[in-house]
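Hey,
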Amino acid sequence: MRLRKGFTLVELLVVITIIVLLLALLSVLIKGVVEKARNTKTHALILLLDKGCSKYKTELGVYPPMTGFSDSSCLHFYLGRELQIPTGRDKDGNVTGYKKLPPVIQFKADMLSLPPGQDNLDPSKGAVPVMDAWAKVVRYMPYPGKNNTTGVDIWSLGKEDADAMDDITNWGKEF
């Protein structure tokens, strides 16, 4: 009787084929999980920005304007810095004092479109757009929004670059 010292070519090919099939299946599953995680992260960011705009309105009586900004840079500028609320006025209408409040949102570096090497998140030194999980600019339309007539419009275009069914918004049934 002859002793075998190794695998046959057929056995190796069967094992390699099984491994390749398992890796292909795993990559499809991982891709789906990653996309779901990006959707969830972006939805949470949109919710955070919407709540921040509501708090800003509660404190100052207006929603964050877009004056001097485009897209969501204004949200970084107005929601990410210390607020100063007038506490009194003299007989001529001049402000006599301010109450300081902390920033409405503590922005993290992964929420913003910071230039390479810049880690300064202080919006008074240069507001930058807020970014979604696909590193695309979050969109903002001040009050009254086109789609959200009781507040502001905040949305992400999602994975696709054009307006499509995968947009993540602060209006609609899922919000």
